[in-house]
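Objective 1b. Sequence-to-structure analysis of BadM/Rrf2 family transcriptional regulator.
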Amino acid sequence: MKFSTKGRYALRMMIEFALRPGECTKINHVAERQDISDKYLEQIVTILSRAGYVKSRRGAQGGYYLAKDPSEYTVGMILRLAEGSLVPVSCMEEEINSCSKADTCASMMVWKKLDKAISDVVDSITLADLVTEQKRLEGIED
């Protein structure tokens, strides 16, 4: 399974916002720091804003900030918002008519275990965990 740039960039943008609690962060700051197109980040922040994950403030000191504490967001929440479903194979999608072979398909065991493993990982890591790791990597102390 590969995650798209949209999912990866949404996660990196949320980390940037979480690194500055109580402050507004401008998109161009995130774009510069993460070496990502600010036009692409504007599209992603719209998705995050519509979902209520971030809020905006206008004006010279404006920008975006997290709507909730970083501990209230999981990696899974952010990736599912940006990517949609994280299931490893399309026959597991709920929106799609179930595969007629699902009940007799031995490989379904693999896909279900893989789906559970992915969910267990992404749903157990919070944005606060990633902020802690980012600060460690940058040598920033709290």
